[in-house]
Amino acid sequence: MSNLAELNRHLFAALDRLDVENMTPEQIEAEVSRAGAIVDVADRITENAKVQLQAAKLFAEHGDKILPTLPMIGREPRKAGEG
Question: Which helix (H) or strand (E) holds 20?
């Protein structure tokens, strides 16, 4: 999943799968478990997006002077082994 729109599609697909009426109890249980896992991951993704948005807002409000506190803004992430 590369963006929040795709995440949204996955969430609605999980909801659609839960709405199938002719599932066995075992299929329902498996689908509920799968949907729960999808929701758990979705929660982490949306929390990460919120943190990124907060950082962007801080940068928009305070400009370059906030960069020492938010070193990843405006720069490429360091690659493994770079110091």
Answer: none
Its pTM stands at 0.66
Tokens of 75: 């720069």
Q: How far apart are the first and last CA of the chain?
A: 30
Residues 46 and 5 sit within 8 Å (Cβ to Cβ): no
Asked whether 10 and 1 are in contact (CB, 8 A), the reply is yes
Mean pLDDT (the chain) is 84
Mean pLDDT of 31-41: 94
Counting every residue written for the chain, the total comes to 83
The DSSP string of 31-80 is HHHHHHHHHHHHHHHHHHHHHHHHHHHHHHHHGGGGTTTSTTTTSPPPPT
The rounded distance, in Å, linking the Cα atoms of 79 and 64 is: 23
